[in-house]
Amino acid sequence: MPSTGRISERIASIAESATLAVDAKAKALKAAGRPVIGFGAGEPDFPTPEYIVDAAVEAARNPRFHRYSPAGGLPELKKAIAEKTLRDSGYAVEPAQVLVTNGGKQAVYEAFATLLNPGDEVLLPAPYWTTYPEAIRLAGGVPVEVFAGPEQGYMVTVDQLEAARTDRTKLLLFCSPSNPTGAVYPADEVAAIGRWAADRGLWVVTDEIYEHLTYDGVKSTSIAAAAPELGNKVVVLNGVAKTYAMTGWRVGWMIAAPDVIKAATNLQSHLSSNVANVSQMAALAAVSGPLTAVDEMKTAFDRRRRAMVSALNSIDGVECPMPEGAFYAYADVRGLLGREFPGSEGPVRPQTSAELAAVILETVEVAVVPGEAFGPSGYLRLSYALGDEDLAEGMGRLQDFLGRAQ
Question: Cα angle at 191 between 189 and 192, to 5 degrees?
């Protein structure tokens, strides 16, 4: 019997992006005149570098870019992405192995849609980016969470992955540097996880969009390069959003074996066709140019990272490892749950991190994302990709409010 619901069960089952929802609520409150500090969205507070904008302006004036272009991406951009991948990751690929997508999220979805059959299991290290499980389910897959807490630096082990593997496991999702935790796997652990996956015949989808945002001399390692044993069963996801402060330009990409890219390009040809040509030319300028802009941003991010983590760890009941990558702090607040806080209508005792985040926003007008968006309850993600003054003000409010827990 056909469903009588107005919305399909497949789409109705999708959870709203928690990070975007928190950011939207914070912006709405700000627009209403409330002094909200938003630690929700992972978005650099810097403008896109001028040389990239100039390339876009020039492209906008060129009639060539006023027309449809190949669904899989402009040939010159695909070539530049292949060259950038070898330069930055030590992973050699051909332009035919590149698909240019409308932001990183489209690359994530298309990777899972191309590889998964109904019932295929995906090992999903947690805490994870909120979009991963939804994209897996949309593709018919089954996310299998493998949790690593702060005592492990939020990094899973081969033994944990092996314990979660079944005969239905097809794929491992790997993300380093990590959103939401900022964890960066050491090179030897990356290689070990890659070899384990290869030995088990698993695919690896690796999200490397934060590759250039690392601190304290730490380097990110591409699992595709570190574990050549994976052969043609590795998919690399990346984009320009974080490295070049280009979140609004919507250019990402997917790198995989030619047959996978051909299939994913077929999907994209029906789903959205080509990425906007002006954005593609901006991305070409970005990936072909220097990393000066990201180096300048990293100086600010590093300063903010230290200030945020120091402030969080000064609060009784909060534990926050120092993140080595991305621009997030992932605070363990289990020590605060069940304790009494002053609420707007009297004392409250939040039992979950979602409840705690709601109380924080309502009481001191600071927006944070609860751990439920990324895995188990008991954690808060805070982005430090915002201005120094806002960060100091927001952390001061949090220290004062959370410090009053009874």
Answer: 65
